[in-house]
Amino acid sequence: MRHSTFKALSSLSAVRNLANFVQIVEVGPRDGLQNEKTIVPTSVKLKLIEMLSDCGLSKIEVTSFVSPKWIPQMSDQKEVMQGITNKPGISYSVLTPNLKGLEGALASGANEVAIFAAASETFSEKNINATIDKSLDKFRDVCKHASTNNIQIRGYVSCVLGCPYEGHILPKAVIKVSEQLLSMGCYEVSLGDTIGIGTPGSVDTLLREITQFIPADKLAMHCHDTYGQALANIMVAIMYGIRTLDSSVAGLGGCPYAKGASGNVSTEDLVYMLHGSGYETGVNLKKLIEAGNYISEFLQRQNGSKVSKANSKL
Ligand SMILES: CC(C)(COP(=O)([O-])OP(=O)([O-])OC[C@H]1O[C@@H](n2cnc3c(N)ncnc32)[C@H](O)[C@@H]1OP(=O)([O-])[O-])[C@@H](O)C(=O)NCCC(=O)NCCSC(=O)C[C@@](C)(O)CC(=O)[O-]
């Protein structure tokens, strides 16, 4: 990380002087659960989504319209969409890899979809069975159809700081894919550190390059916490002016096609850090902790949020 970034990070007043609302995109019901081996009943997913909807979160990624052979955990996507009690002001988005997925999403009443590309050729093939170029062709079709149906489209780029198969990924590969996603109609691109390998230094290097081509308000950060770097990495993203952050309640998650990747940064820990640093999120931390405890108890798993653990000892 550059000296100037360290200097800025050390000054909380500098942090507070920046626009202070941070948009959280809760990905727990989708990214958080997609890797669970035991199928989580639809009713539990719906209860989790309801609890998250009561926390003040305005963007929740709830399921994905992908092949049930590839991601069995998401095969109840229609039932999930039909069972949600839509709360005004909340966007319930879904992942769609192709036109078949988009058709399913539209039929289920989705008003926002996310397409997901990668900066690594091998990861793209392992995850969606297509080269990067082929996947972008499919996404272009999805975008055309989505925009004629007035559907908002978000883009993801996976492996922005490293790939489980190819190792180091160059910023120029990330920039190339991100620019294409934006040009086909995505309103923003979420930069995925899929295997949580990034550090504040590598995030700084990536963002210094990418923000020369893409403004920070078109970018989001999606950090996994495999190496315990996610919050530090996010703070660097904030210093670059990024104000949209993805996270998963109770730190659940991981992509089944990214071996060894652990959960996303926990939403509870993210909210605690942001509120403590003078940012607003609109999220009620107490209710969020309850939602994280609910799903952790169901999965019979220790809650992955440090804030929740600390809170239970108070
Ligand atoms: C993209 C495909 C479908 C290609 O998979 P494919 O096998 O190449 O697909 P195909 O077009 O050859 O079709 C094969 C079969 O799949 C069906 N099919 C085809 N499309 C669909 C669909 N949309 N929904 C339901 N079924 C579908 C299709 O109808 C056919 O059925 P069959 O005739 O054999 O019965 C597959 O690879 C897939 O579903 N991949 C999804 C993988 C995935 O969801 N990964 C996790 C999400 S990405 C992630 O977690 C990273 C992220 C976003 O969080 C950010 C980060 O952390 O980096």
UniProtKB/TrEMBL annotation:
State the organism of origin. Answer: Oopsacas minuta
Protein name as catalogued: hydroxymethylglutaryl-CoA lyase
Print the keywords alphabetically. Lyase, Metal-binding
Q: What class of enzyme is it?
A: lyase
- What's the domain of life for this entry? Eukaryota
Concerning its family, UniProt says: Belongs to the HMG-CoA lyase family.
Q: Which residues cross the membrane?
A: none
Catalytic activity field: (3S)-3-hydroxy-3-methylglutaryl-CoA = acetoacetate + acetyl-CoA
EC number, as in UniProt: 4.1.3.4
- GO MF, one annotated term: hydroxymethylglutaryl-CoA lyase activity
Instruction: Output the GO biological process annotations, alphabetical, semicolon-separated.
Output: ketone body biosynthetic process; L-leucine catabolic process
- InterPro entries hit by this protein: Aldolase_TIM, HMG_CoA_lyase_AS, HMGL, PYR_CT
State the pathway, as annotated in the record: Metabolic intermediate metabolism; (S)-3-hydroxy-3-methylglutaryl-CoA degradation; acetoacetate from (S)-3-hydroxy-3-methylglutaryl-CoA: step 1/1
Q: Which residues form the Pyruvate carboxyltransferase domain?
A: 22-289
- Tell me the PANTHER family matching this sequence: HYDROXYMETHYLGLUTARYL-COA LYASE (PTHR42738)
